[in-house]
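Could you join me in thinking about how sequence relates to backbone shape in a protein? Label the sequence line and the structure token line clearly, so we can match residues to local backbone shapes. Once you have written the record down, we can walk along the chain together.
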Amino acid sequence: MKRLKAGDEVMVTAGSHRGERGLVRKLVGADRVLVENVNLVRKHRKPNPQQNQPGGIVEEERPLHVSNVALYNPRTEKAGRIGIKTLVEGQRVRYFKSDGEVIDTA
């Protein structure tokens, strides 16, 4: 079970975008996440007439390392560390280590 999933609200904990929040769009590889509207870069694109793509400067999101983001806890309004535990019924769940609140089931 992964600690982060697509659709989770995360907060950036390190780097130039520290403190910004956003939703995880997707996991990129084993150790990177793409967070919407965070870590935007400008790219210069050549026009591609075969695909009807105009040239110019476009902004795109770049992935962040998972160690630089933490799941946002709406109850405490802070970023929280995540643990995984098995309940009595044998179900594995993610929970916040700070207050023990269960996030979801796997």
Q: What stands out?
A: The chain has a mean pLDDT of 92. The chain has no helices and eleven strands.
